[in-house]
Each structure stands twice: as structure tokens, then as C-alpha cells.
Backbone:
């Protein structure tokens, strides 16, 4: 897998698919001391993603704004023990902007949900579905 970031990525901006492929093959050739023709024969499948043209990231990682260090902690707060949030943006341990923060925040939200009392979940479910208690025919085993 190849990865170019920062100034190296900027230098690749505007290159065509074939030009990028040539650069990648050239880099592999120098790194592993193998001929470019040999490497081309070894290619099974190719994929590349230009993050700088990705409308949802524009090449950037997420980051807190100035004075925004507490934002993640606030965002991670559940609402009324009903809505729970996860994702790297809710990490306030300093790992925001990473996959492991996203995974950990998911685990943490799941643990919080598991800690909520069954009675409370039932009450919320009844309210949400606008049902009376005797109309709730779903068992805890189905829910969890
Ligand atoms: C260029 C780049 C390189 C990176 N490299 C690394 C790296 O090397 N190592 C690393 O650890 N991290 C890296 N990251 C960061 C990592 O990708 C993110 O931190 C991680 O993917 C965040 O996971 P998430 O689940 O919180 O959010 P996301 O992966 O962004 O998932 C959010 C999901 O919600 C969906 N969504 C958004 N709005 C709505 C809506 N209204 N309704 C329904 N769905 C919606 C989106 O489509 C998306 O699928 C990189 C990020 C970028 C942009």
C-alpha cells in the first residue's frame, strides 16, 4: 500500500491515473530493487483514492478548532440516557482523528447503553412507539 501526505501529496496533485501508477511502480522498484516490468506483471488489482478531491474530507483529518478541546467531551455526552454518540469526533483522550478512537468510542457507547436499566429502556421504547405497557410484546432477548 502506498500513501502520500503533506507536501508529497501536493506534488502528486493533477497527475493522471497512469502517471500516478508510473510513480508508484517507480517507487516500489527503487524500494525493493525490482524491475518495473517485473512489478507490472505482479499487479493483480489496483485502487487509489485522491483524498484531496474527496468532497467530505478535502484531504484533511478532523481537528478541534481553537478553544474547541472540550467540544468532543460535550458531544460524547448521551442525551437523556436515550441517544448515545460514537465516532472519532467524540474522543477526548487525544486520539481524535484516528480509526482506533472511532472503534474505542463505539465500545464505550455500547458499554454505556448496556449499563442503562432495562426498565428505563422499556419506558423509553413505549414512549417512542407511543404504546401502552400491555402493547409491548417484544422481549429483552430480542432487543439485546
Ligand atoms: C485522508 C485521510 C487519511 C486518514 N488516515 C488515517 C490513518 O492512517 N490512520 C487512522 O487511524 N486514521 C486515519 N484517518 C482518520 C480515520 O479515517 C477517521 O478518524 C475514522 O474513519 C473516523 O471514523 P468514524 O466512524 O468516527 O467516522 P466516519 O468513518 O467518517 O464514518 C461516519 C459515517 O457516517 C456517515 N454519515 C455522515 N452523515 C450522515 C447522515 N446524515 N446520515 C447517515 N450517515 C451519515 C458517513 O457517510 C460515514 O460513513 C484518515 C482520514 C482521512 C480523511
Residues:
Amino acid at each position: 500500500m502506498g500513501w502520500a501526505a503533506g507536501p508529497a501529496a501536493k506534488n502528486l496533485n493533477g497527475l493522471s491515473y497512469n502517471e500516478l501508477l508510473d510513480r508508484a511502480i517507480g517507487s516500489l522498484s527503487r524500494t525493493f530493487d525490482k524491475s518495473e516490468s517485473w512489478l507490472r506483471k505482479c499487479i493483480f488489482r489496483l485502487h487509489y483514492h485522491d483524498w484531496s478531491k474527496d468532497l467530505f474530507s478535502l484531504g484533511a483529518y478532523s481537528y478541534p478548532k481553537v478553544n474547541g478541546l472540550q467540544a468532543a467531551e460535550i458531544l460524547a455526552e448521551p442525551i437523556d440516557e436515550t441517544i448515545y454518540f460514537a465516532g472519532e469526533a467524540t474522543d477526548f483522550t487525544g486520539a481524535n482523528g484516528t480509526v482506533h478512537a472511532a472503534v474505542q468510542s463505539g465500545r464505550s457507547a455500547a458499554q454505556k447503553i448496556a449499563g442503562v436499566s432495562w426498565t428505563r429502556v422499556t419506558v423509553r421504547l413505549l414512549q417512542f412507539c407511543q404504546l401502552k405497557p400491555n402493547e409491548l410484546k417484544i422481549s429483552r432477548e430480542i432487543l439485546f
Observations:
- The first helix runs from residue 6 to 12.
- DSSP finds seven helices and no strands in the chain.
- The helical segments are 6-12, 17-32, 36-42, 71-75, 99-115, 118-129, 140-143.
